[in-house]
Each structure stands twice: as structure tokens, then as C-alpha cells.
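Re-run with default settings, no changes from the original entry. Doing this only to confirm the output is reproducible before filing.
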Amino acid sequence: MQKYIRRPLIIALALVSSAVYGQKCGHDHLEEEVKRLYPNYESAEQEFIQSIDFDAAHDPEATVFKIPVVVHIIYDDAGDNISDKQVKDAIAVINEDFRRLNADTVDTRSAFLGVATDCEIQFELAKLNPQGNCTTGITRKQSALSVNASNNVKGLVSWPNNKYLNIWVVNSIDLGSSGQGTVLGYAYKPNPGQSTTFDGVVIRHDRMGRIGTGNSAGRTLTHEVGHYLGLDHPFKGGCFAGDNCSDTPPVSEASFGCNLNANTCSNDNPNLPDQIENYMDYADDICTNMFTEDQRAIMRSNLNISNRRGYLVTTTNASNTGIAANAVLPCAPEANFEADQAVFCAGATVQFMDKSTFGNPTSWQWNFPGGTPSSSTAENPTVTYNNPGNYNVKLEVTNSNGTSTLLQTGYVSVRRNNPGMWVNGFKSGFEFNTVPNGTWHVENPDGDNIRWQRNNFNFYEGAYCVKLDNYNNVADNTDALITDKIYVGGAKSMNFSFKYAVASKPGFAGDRIVVSVSQDCGTTWNSVRTLLGPLLYATTNKANPWNPASQNNWRSININMSDYVGPNPIMIKVDFVSGGGNNAFLDDFQLTTVLDTEEFTAEDITLYPNPSNGSFNVEGLPVGTDYTITSVDGRLIQQGQLNTERTIDINTAAGYYIFQAGTVRKPIVIQ
């Protein structure tokens, strides 16, 4: 195939596809400024491209270039101040895309499978700042410049551009007369000697990653980092210019949507369709899934030249920025950990993983009350829990600079191996026990102090509910309530219902509630309902911490769970995923069942003690079963539903009575 050499481009922009069909991307406006400052950049670019041996560059190198990254979050209000978790997800996306580990590689069409490639380039948040101090690789600064941002935000904070890939995350972007579309992000190609003002990536917060305020695929950053490493749009110059890559077919103009039939240029040989899969086109995120071998060659060549991007990936810079595998960081560690499961049945073995940040721990001291072993000095121990209960986990990490300890109360919830605490139904309004308890486990994987807690001020019914201080929560944090096991084998059908009261903050409403069911003691979960947006919020735009003022602030949800009726006990999980909104409240949980009482016979049911002094137990019937007690002459003495303990207290004269449930009748003698 003929190689189409195109004029070099220093600035490249990504636009909202729905707004810019057939419109310019804004490159020309910014390029004029770069030309004025760097008059030799076009000839330098041509010389660079001509120096690349594209055929040799296709050979696997088995050398992975690692680039240190710093993300500067420039926010106007809380809605723009995205979480560390969202930033890390955005870095995870570009690592998947540049290493061709993205799940949608299977969507690459056969015509391009031979050129789609792993670029062997990875990105890692810096662990040391320019002064040599420990860092998360994320900075935050509040500024009105976040709105309609341009290069002006770079003056607020920047790190040396020869040592770090600087990414500025902003509310919105305005490049003046650059074009009429909505700009999602922009980046500058490598240019010897360029300043930070004309380097790095500027991107909107809602294009960072797949979670929080991010979109579903999060590939705007992949596109912009491609420019940062030297790539052009494949549609630059139309059918007869090209992007310096022979394996990206010429494209007459930017691709929008996901048109797999597009073939806008026929002057290539062989004549291939437009490569809408390419990250550097404008097709929808869900349709892009590849870089090509020639694109890989351009990016890696830039990383092999010291006055372009080369210093970024030197061993010296890896040590100076703290991303080297053997880097010793000059700070105490900050303890943190995760487990592969936190709710499980007795007898299960759990894998714990040290996730401490900042300084590298050199020793670990774990404590696992209720577990075997009960303590460990391993970095990532495994622990077996044989007895039901809620158990704390503590980790202490140490290095020469200090020690840090994290205690997570009730982190592990071990469930019984019997059929379940409740049989066929339950009602829980948090009236009698705090949480966590034998009924509910509170899951707080982030380990912070914000979790579901019992509250006696803002209830829907009774005197208590549970509250989540979501006003002070971090976006993307997930906090859950999980029931004990529930036996539902005696039901014909069932419905799960509860009351909820949630508010949003001004201009930001990204929270959601997700209800899930497990039939294998929490090993796997099936989502059955998600509440978000108008379905979730009782009220919106509350700037101050909000509490429901009356029952009018509460909403109800009723979920048909009949598909989960069967011999396997179920567990129900209610996740609240923070989207930066206001406080949340839950109350009045009920699992209502229609029982199949026809399956019970008199031989299945035992009343004891019998005779009784007025208090007796019922064995063999599910909790929630309707019953009546009548006298021998047919008078109704008492009726109700079996409670959790399946104990009945009756205040009546001594005598002979009939207990009836469904079609089953049993005598009971009261002394």
C-alpha cells in the first residue's frame, strides 16, 4: 500500500461528534501560534518521519515504555472535582488501549487484524513530585478558569514536561475561534524545546474514565495521548494527504457514529474501508478499539529520541518520579487493603491484599479476629473463617520512615451454612438493633468513616432508619447493606420493597442505588434493579446537608424477585454508588412472599411444648406463614403471621384449641 505523507500537525482536538459533522476541529487557530513560536517545527517533523524505518519498527521489541503521569484537576465546583478513583480508572483505560488489552479487540474487523497491535506503552501516576516528595500523582486546584478553559489553566500548576505527562482536567474547553464544535480535549504533538504552555493534554472531566462523571468508554484520553505521542488524525488532508501511516486507509473526512460500511476514499491499494476502529478517528468510543503498527512505530520513535519524548522513559526519570519497580520512596506508607470477598459463608478462605500507598512497606502485621490464622506478617495473606459473625480486620505497615495502621470494623461478615436466618420473608426497619447486626452487614470497601449508620431523626416508619452521609462522600465510593441468608423454598412468588430518600447537590446528580441478589452466599451477584436520575431523587439542587422533612420526601420501590424462588437461600444487597450528591436514607425493608402451603402436611409441623402455658413454638412452617387459633366450637381466638422466632404467645383460658395454617390443622392444649 502506498504511504501517504501528510503535513505535520502540532495541535489536535477531539470534538463532540453530534455537534461537529463537517466542521473544523479548531486546529488551525492554535497551529498559527505554534508556528510563530517554533518556525522550524514543520521541517523538523518531516525529518523525524523520514528517519523512521517503519518495516523494522514492526518487529516486536519486548520493551515496555513506562511514562510517569501527573493529573491536575482544575475544578470550578464540587461537580468538577472528580475522585482519585475516576482518575485511576482513566489511567486504566489508556493502559488497556495502548497495550491492546481492551475487551473489545474482538470487534476489530478481519481486514485490520493484521495491523492492530500492542504499542508496548504504559502509563503510571507519578509517586514522587518534582521536589522529590511523595505524591499520588494527582493535584487539585479550585479556579474559575476551569470553565471555558484553554492553555490558561497550565499557568495554575504544571510539572516539568520533560519528566511528566501533564494532564489538566477541567469543566469545559473554549478555544475561541478554533471551531464551532464542542471541544472535549486537546493535545500537542512532540516538538523539540517546547514549553509546558504548548505541551500536555487538556481534557474535560466528563471524558476521564468510565466511572463517576466519565462516559461509558472513556477513550477521549486515549485519542489525546495518541496526539501527545506524535499521531495525526487519519482524515487529515482527505484522501490524498494521510497521517504518515500506510496501514491506516485514507479517509476523506472525520468519521462519526459507527458506520462499518464507510469507504470514503478509493485511491488506496488494496481499497479498504475506512478504519473507524482507529482511536485517532472521531467514531464513537464504543466503535474504536485499535492502534496500528505504523502508529506504534511513530509513538515509540518519539520515545526513543531524547529531545522529543525520550527522557520520559529513561531509567533515571523512572527513579526520579518514583515509578521504577525498585524505587524506594522517602515517606512512611499509608495503610490500605482489600479482600477478594467480604461477605461469604462459614468455611470460606479469603485472599487479603496490601494496597498501601505512598512509601513502600517493608513489614506487615495483620490481625484477623475470628480467622485462621488470627494474625500474619505476610504481605498478602489468606485466611479461613469457620464461624459465623462480623469481624474486624487490622493492618499495620512499616518502613524506615514510619508506621501506619488501618482498622476496618466489621469488614468481614461470615454467614451461616444453614438454610438462612429468615425463612421465606422478613421485615426490617432497624428498630431493635444497630448496624451491622445479624440481619444486615454493612460493606464499606473504601475503609473511610462514611458508611450506612442507624439514624433516629429522619425515619420513614417506626423510630429508626439508616443514613449515608453522602454529602461528604467521595464520588464513586460504594457503600452497601447486605442481608443474611433467606430461605425461599416454600414460596410461590416474592417481592422485595423498601423506602428511600435521596437528594442531589446543585448541578450534579450522578448517584445510584443498585439492588442485587446472590444465590451462592455472596460469591456472585445478579443485579435486579438500578435507581438513578429522576427515579432516585426526591428533591434536587440541595446545596447544604439534606435530611427528609416528612414522608413526602420518601419514595418506594417494589421489585419482583419470583425468579429467585427455589431451594437455594438468597442474599440481597443494596449498593449506593456516590455520584457527588447529597445525603441518602433507607427504611422499611420487606420481603413479601406468597407461600405454597399446599406442600405442608400435618406430619411436617410440630407444636411444642404441647401442652403449653400460653407460649409455644411452631416447627416446620416458614416465617411469615398466616395462622389462626380457634376454639373447638369455632370461635376465632387469635390470628397472625409467624415471626422470626416462630414463637406464638396466646392469652386465653385453659383448654383445647386448634392451630391452623393453610389446610393443616394441629391441636394445642393450653394449661
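The two ends are 100 Å apart (CA to CA). The CA atoms of residues 492 and 507 lie 45 Å apart.
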